[in-house]
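Help needed: design a sequence for this.
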Protein backbone atom coordinates (compact mmCIF):
# COMPACT_ATOMS: atom_id res chain seq x y z
CA UNK A 1 0.00 0.00 0.00
CA UNK A 2 1.43 3.36 -1.00
CA UNK A 3 -0.87 6.08 0.34
CA UNK A 4 -3.03 6.28 3.43
CA UNK A 5 -5.38 9.18 4.06
CA UNK A 6 -6.35 9.76 7.66
CA UNK A 7 -9.36 12.04 7.80
CA UNK A 8 -11.04 13.10 11.05
CA UNK A 9 -14.71 13.85 10.58
CA UNK A 10 -16.97 15.73 12.94
CA UNK A 11 -20.27 16.78 11.41
CA UNK A 12 -19.08 17.18 7.84
CA UNK A 13 -21.81 15.30 5.95
CA UNK A 14 -21.93 17.69 2.99
CA UNK A 15 -18.26 17.57 2.04
CA UNK A 16 -17.37 13.88 2.24
CA UNK A 17 -18.49 12.73 -1.20
CA UNK A 18 -16.80 15.60 -2.96
CA UNK A 19 -13.65 15.07 -0.89
CA UNK A 20 -13.50 11.39 -1.81
CA UNK A 21 -13.97 12.20 -5.47
CA UNK A 22 -11.23 14.84 -5.49
CA UNK A 23 -8.75 12.58 -3.69
CA UNK A 24 -9.25 9.83 -6.26
CA UNK A 25 -8.78 12.32 -9.08
CA UNK A 26 -5.44 13.40 -7.72
CA UNK A 27 -3.65 10.14 -7.01
CA UNK A 28 -3.81 8.52 -10.48
CA UNK A 29 -3.19 4.79 -10.15
CA UNK A 30 -1.46 4.65 -6.80
CA UNK A 31 -2.68 2.06 -4.29
CA UNK A 32 -4.41 3.78 -1.41
CA UNK A 33 -6.71 3.59 1.58
CA UNK A 34 -8.90 6.31 3.04
CA UNK A 35 -9.53 6.03 6.75
CA UNK A 36 -12.46 8.19 7.77
CA UNK A 37 -12.67 8.53 11.54
CA UNK A 38 -16.10 9.73 12.51
CA UNK A 39 -15.45 11.53 15.78
CA UNK A 40 -18.95 11.11 17.22
CA UNK A 41 -20.78 13.18 14.60
CA UNK A 42 -24.38 14.01 15.35
CA UNK A 43 -25.32 14.53 11.68
CA UNK A 44 -25.36 11.97 8.88
CA UNK A 45 -21.60 11.85 8.37
CA UNK A 46 -21.27 8.19 9.25
CA UNK A 47 -24.08 7.12 6.94
CA UNK A 48 -22.36 8.99 4.11
CA UNK A 49 -19.05 7.31 4.92
CA UNK A 50 -20.67 3.88 4.89
CA UNK A 51 -22.35 4.63 1.62
CA UNK A 52 -18.99 5.61 0.12
CA UNK A 53 -17.38 2.48 1.55
CA UNK A 54 -19.90 0.29 -0.21
CA UNK A 55 -18.75 1.70 -3.53
CA UNK A 56 -15.04 1.93 -2.79
CA UNK A 57 -13.44 -0.96 -0.90
CA UNK A 58 -10.40 1.19 -0.12
CA UNK A 59 -12.42 3.23 2.33
CA UNK A 60 -12.11 2.15 5.94
CA UNK A 61 -14.75 3.67 8.20
CA UNK A 62 -14.15 4.02 11.92
CA UNK A 63 -16.69 5.42 14.30
CA UNK A 64 -16.24 6.84 17.80
CA UNK A 65 -19.14 6.45 20.17
CA UNK A 66 -18.85 10.08 21.16
CA UNK A 67 -16.75 13.15 20.39
CA UNK A 68 -13.21 12.36 21.55
CA UNK A 69 -11.51 15.18 19.67
CA UNK A 70 -9.22 15.53 16.69
CA UNK A 71 -6.10 14.17 18.39
CA UNK A 72 -7.80 10.91 19.32
CA UNK A 73 -9.17 10.60 15.79
CA UNK A 74 -5.78 11.18 14.20
CA UNK A 75 -4.04 8.78 16.58
CA UNK A 76 -6.52 6.02 15.78
CA UNK A 77 -5.92 6.68 12.11
CA UNK A 78 -2.13 6.52 12.52
CA UNK A 79 -2.41 3.22 14.36
CA UNK A 80 -4.52 1.69 11.59
CA UNK A 81 -2.77 3.15 8.56
CA UNK A 82 -0.70 0.84 6.40
CA UNK A 83 0.54 3.11 3.62
CA UNK A 84 4.18 4.03 3.13
CA UNK A 85 3.10 7.68 3.07
CA UNK A 86 0.39 8.74 5.47
CA UNK A 87 -1.63 11.89 4.77
CA UNK A 88 -3.80 13.78 7.20
CA UNK A 89 -6.43 16.14 5.83
CA UNK A 90 -9.38 18.00 7.23
CA UNK A 91 -12.73 16.70 6.03
CA UNK A 92 -14.19 20.12 5.26
CA UNK A 93 -12.66 20.62 1.78
CA UNK A 94 -10.56 23.54 3.04
CA UNK A 95 -7.49 21.45 2.14
CA UNK A 96 -7.21 20.93 -1.60
CA UNK A 97 -6.46 17.36 -2.79
CA UNK A 98 -4.70 18.88 -5.81
CA UNK A 99 -1.67 19.32 -3.55
CA UNK A 100 -1.22 15.60 -2.94
CA UNK A 101 1.46 15.07 -5.64
CA UNK A 102 3.52 17.98 -4.29
CA UNK A 103 3.54 16.43 -0.82
CA UNK A 104 4.62 13.08 -2.26
CA UNK A 105 7.41 14.81 -4.16
CA UNK A 106 8.79 16.33 -0.96
CA UNK A 107 8.63 13.02 0.89
CA UNK A 108 10.53 11.43 -1.98
CA UNK A 109 13.17 14.14 -1.61
CA UNK A 110 13.85 12.53 1.76
CA UNK A 111 11.75 14.44 4.30
CA UNK A 112 9.94 12.49 7.01
CA UNK A 113 7.19 15.06 7.57
CA UNK A 114 5.88 17.61 5.11
CA UNK A 115 3.57 20.12 6.73
CA UNK A 116 1.18 22.39 4.84
CA UNK A 117 1.42 26.15 5.11
CA UNK A 118 -1.87 27.98 4.50
CA UNK A 119 -0.07 31.11 3.34
CA UNK A 120 -3.24 32.77 2.07
CA UNK A 121 -5.48 31.59 4.81
CA UNK A 122 -9.23 31.82 4.25
CA UNK A 123 -10.26 32.10 7.87
CA UNK A 124 -11.45 35.05 9.98
CA UNK A 125 -8.83 37.40 11.41
CA UNK A 126 -9.57 36.22 14.96
CA UNK A 127 -8.01 32.95 13.90
CA UNK A 128 -5.17 34.22 11.77
CA UNK A 129 -3.48 36.62 14.18
CA UNK A 130 -3.30 34.43 17.26
CA UNK A 131 -2.07 31.66 15.01
CA UNK A 132 0.80 33.86 13.73
CA UNK A 133 1.83 34.57 17.29
CA UNK A 134 1.76 30.88 18.26
CA UNK A 135 3.76 29.82 15.27
CA UNK A 136 6.45 32.35 16.07
CA UNK A 137 6.71 31.30 19.72
CA UNK A 138 6.68 27.60 18.89
CA UNK A 139 9.32 28.09 16.20
CA UNK A 140 11.55 29.81 18.72
CA UNK A 141 11.08 27.23 21.44
CA UNK A 142 11.87 24.30 19.16
CA UNK A 143 14.33 25.97 16.77
CA UNK A 144 12.21 24.83 13.85
CA UNK A 145 10.84 27.66 11.73
CA UNK A 146 7.42 26.67 10.43
CA UNK A 147 4.71 29.17 9.56
CA UNK A 148 1.79 26.89 10.22
CA UNK A 149 2.37 24.17 12.81
CA UNK A 150 -1.31 23.43 13.19
CA UNK A 151 -2.15 22.91 9.52
CA UNK A 152 -4.32 19.80 9.28
CA UNK A 153 -2.84 18.96 5.90
CA UNK A 154 0.33 16.94 6.29
CA UNK A 155 2.17 13.99 4.80
CA UNK A 156 4.30 11.63 6.87
CA UNK A 157 6.72 8.91 6.07
CA UNK A 158 5.19 5.87 7.78
CA UNK A 159 7.82 5.68 10.55
CA UNK A 160 7.24 9.29 11.57
CA UNK A 161 3.48 8.87 11.90
CA UNK A 162 3.83 5.56 13.73
CA UNK A 163 6.16 7.15 16.30
CA UNK A 164 3.39 9.48 17.49
CA UNK A 165 1.28 9.11 20.56
CA UNK A 166 -0.96 12.17 20.74
CA UNK A 167 -3.95 12.92 22.92
CA UNK A 168 -5.90 15.95 24.15
CA UNK A 169 -5.13 18.73 21.69
CA UNK A 170 -1.51 17.94 21.06
CA UNK A 171 -2.08 17.60 17.31
CA UNK A 172 -1.27 21.31 17.15
CA UNK A 173 2.35 20.62 17.89
CA UNK A 174 2.94 17.46 15.88
CA UNK A 175 5.84 18.93 13.87
CA UNK A 176 7.66 19.84 17.10
CA UNK A 177 7.12 16.35 18.53
CA UNK A 178 8.24 14.60 15.35
CA UNK A 179 11.22 16.93 15.00
CA UNK A 180 12.37 16.30 18.57
CA UNK A 181 12.42 12.57 17.79
CA UNK A 182 15.01 13.23 15.12
CA UNK A 183 12.83 13.13 11.99
CA UNK A 184 13.30 15.74 9.28
CA UNK A 185 10.51 18.26 8.83
CA UNK A 186 9.72 20.76 6.10
CA UNK A 187 6.76 22.78 4.87
CA UNK A 188 5.14 23.58 1.53
CA UNK A 189 2.69 26.35 0.72
CA UNK A 190 -0.80 24.94 0.10
CA UNK A 191 -3.94 26.51 -1.25
CA UNK A 192 -6.64 26.93 1.33
CA UNK A 193 -10.34 27.32 0.68
CA UNK A 194 -13.11 29.00 2.60
CA UNK A 195 -15.31 26.62 4.49
CA UNK A 196 -18.20 25.85 2.16
CA UNK A 197 -20.31 23.60 4.38
CA UNK A 198 -20.88 23.19 8.08
CA UNK A 199 -19.03 25.31 10.63
CA UNK A 200 -15.66 25.50 12.34
CA UNK A 201 -15.34 23.41 15.50
CA UNK A 202 -12.88 25.68 17.22
CA UNK A 203 -13.42 29.01 18.97
CA UNK A 204 -11.39 31.41 21.09
CA UNK A 205 -10.91 28.92 23.93
CA UNK A 206 -8.17 27.41 21.84
CA UNK A 207 -5.84 30.26 22.81
CA UNK A 208 -5.48 29.37 26.44
CA UNK A 209 -5.45 25.67 25.77
CA UNK A 210 -2.96 26.15 22.99
CA UNK A 211 -0.62 27.91 25.38
CA UNK A 212 -0.97 25.22 28.06
CA UNK A 213 -0.32 22.58 25.42
CA UNK A 214 2.85 24.38 24.44
CA UNK A 215 4.06 23.91 28.00
CA UNK A 216 3.14 20.23 27.88
CA UNK A 217 4.90 19.68 24.59
CA UNK A 218 8.04 21.49 25.77
CA UNK A 219 8.04 19.27 28.84
CA UNK A 220 7.49 15.98 27.02
CA UNK A 221 9.96 16.71 24.24
CA UNK A 222 12.78 18.62 25.88
CA UNK A 223 12.71 17.47 29.49
CA UNK A 224 10.97 14.14 29.38
CA UNK A 225 14.11 12.25 30.27
CA UNK A 226 15.59 14.85 32.62
CA UNK A 227 12.94 16.76 34.58
CA UNK A 228 15.51 17.59 37.26
CA UNK A 229 17.42 19.76 34.80
CA UNK A 230 14.34 21.89 34.24
CA UNK A 231 13.24 22.27 37.86
CA UNK A 232 16.52 21.62 39.63
CA UNK A 233 18.54 24.33 37.87
CA UNK A 234 16.11 27.09 38.73
CA UNK A 235 15.60 25.62 42.21
CA UNK A 236 19.33 25.62 42.92
CA UNK A 237 19.80 29.21 41.79
CA UNK A 238 16.80 30.46 43.76
CA UNK A 239 17.70 28.69 46.97
CA UNK A 240 21.32 29.77 46.64
CA UNK A 241 20.26 33.41 46.48
CA UNK A 242 18.02 32.83 49.51
CA UNK A 243 20.90 31.19 51.34
CA UNK A 244 23.31 34.06 50.66
CA UNK A 245 20.74 36.60 51.87
CA UNK A 246 20.12 34.61 55.04
CA UNK A 247 23.82 34.12 55.80
CA UNK A 248 24.43 37.80 55.29
CA UNK A 249 21.62 38.73 57.67
CA UNK A 250 22.81 36.16 60.21
CA UNK A 251 26.34 37.61 60.17
CA UNK A 252 24.95 41.09 60.72
CA UNK A 253 22.83 39.90 63.57
CA UNK A 254 25.47 37.81 65.34
CA UNK A 255 28.53 40.00 64.90
CA UNK A 256 27.05 43.47 64.65
CA UNK A 257 23.97 43.07 66.82
CA UNK A 258 21.62 44.26 64.08
CA UNK A 259 17.94 43.67 64.77
CA UNK A 260 16.16 41.47 62.23
CA UNK A 261 12.60 42.33 63.18
CA UNK A 262 12.46 45.25 60.74
CA UNK A 263 14.21 43.60 57.80
CA UNK A 264 11.79 42.56 54.99
CA UNK A 265 14.82 40.98 53.34
CA UNK A 266 14.63 38.22 55.92
CA UNK A 267 11.31 37.08 54.49
CA UNK A 268 12.67 37.16 50.97
CA UNK A 269 15.60 34.98 52.05
CA UNK A 270 13.33 32.41 53.67
CA UNK A 271 10.87 32.46 50.77
CA UNK A 272 13.60 31.84 48.19
CA UNK A 273 15.03 28.92 50.15
CA UNK A 274 11.61 27.28 50.55
CA UNK A 275 10.60 27.77 46.92
CA UNK A 276 13.99 26.60 45.69
CA UNK A 277 13.88 23.43 47.77
CA UNK A 278 10.36 22.73 46.47
CA UNK A 279 11.45 23.08 42.87
CA UNK A 280 14.36 20.71 43.43
CA UNK A 281 12.03 18.19 45.08
CA UNK A 282 9.62 18.49 42.15
CA UNK A 283 12.47 17.72 39.77
CA UNK A 284 13.53 14.73 41.87
CA UNK A 285 9.96 13.41 41.89
CA UNK A 286 9.95 13.78 38.11
CA UNK A 287 13.18 11.79 37.91
CA UNK A 288 11.64 9.00 39.98
CA UNK A 289 8.64 8.84 37.65
CA UNK A 290 10.91 8.70 34.60
CA UNK A 291 13.04 6.02 36.26
CA UNK A 292 10.15 3.77 37.20
CA UNK A 293 8.46 4.09 33.83
CA UNK A 294 11.72 3.18 32.11
CA UNK A 295 12.03 0.22 34.42
CA UNK A 296 8.53 -0.87 33.42
CA UNK A 297 9.25 -0.41 29.72
CA UNK A 298 12.32 -2.56 30.10
CA UNK A 299 10.36 -5.33 31.81
CA UNK A 300 7.67 -5.19 29.14
CA UNK A 301 10.30 -5.43 26.41
CA UNK A 302 11.83 -8.46 28.11
CA UNK A 303 8.43 -10.12 28.45
CA UNK A 304 7.70 -9.40 24.82
CA UNK A 305 10.91 -10.95 23.61
CA UNK A 306 10.28 -14.00 25.82
CA UNK A 307 6.82 -14.36 24.26
CA UNK A 308 8.31 -14.19 20.80
CA UNK A 309 10.74 -17.03 21.58
N1 LIG B 1 -12.72 17.55 13.95
C1 LIG B 1 -12.83 16.33 14.61
N2 LIG B 1 -13.19 16.35 15.94
C2 LIG B 1 -13.47 17.51 16.61
C3 LIG B 1 -13.32 18.73 15.92
C4 LIG B 1 -12.95 18.73 14.59
O1 LIG B 1 -12.60 15.28 14.04
O2 LIG B 1 -13.79 17.43 17.79
C5 LIG B 1 -12.32 17.56 12.52
C6 LIG B 1 -13.24 18.34 11.61
O3 LIG B 1 -14.32 17.54 11.15
C7 LIG B 1 -12.31 18.73 10.48
C8 LIG B 1 -10.99 18.94 11.20
O4 LIG B 1 -11.07 18.23 12.42
O5 LIG B 1 -12.17 17.67 9.55
C9 LIG B 1 -10.69 20.41 11.43
O6 LIG B 1 -11.78 21.05 12.07
P1 LIG B 1 -12.28 22.50 11.63
O7 LIG B 1 -12.34 22.59 10.14
O8 LIG B 1 -13.52 22.82 12.38
O9 LIG B 1 -11.09 23.44 12.15
P2 LIG B 1 -10.60 24.79 11.47
O10 LIG B 1 -10.30 24.49 10.02
O11 LIG B 1 -11.72 25.75 11.61
O12 LIG B 1 -9.38 25.17 12.26
MG1 LIG C 1 -11.48 23.66 8.64
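Sure. Designed sequence:
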Amino acid sequence: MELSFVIPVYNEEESLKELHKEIIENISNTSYEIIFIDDGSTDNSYAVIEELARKDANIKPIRFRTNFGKAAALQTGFDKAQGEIIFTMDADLQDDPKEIPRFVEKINEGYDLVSGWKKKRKDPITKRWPSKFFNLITSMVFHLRLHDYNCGYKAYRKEAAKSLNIYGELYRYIPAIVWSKGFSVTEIVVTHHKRRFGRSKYGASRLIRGFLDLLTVTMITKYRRSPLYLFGASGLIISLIGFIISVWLAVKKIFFGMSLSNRPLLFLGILLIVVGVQLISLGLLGEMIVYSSRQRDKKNDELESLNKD
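The longest strand covers residues 3-9.
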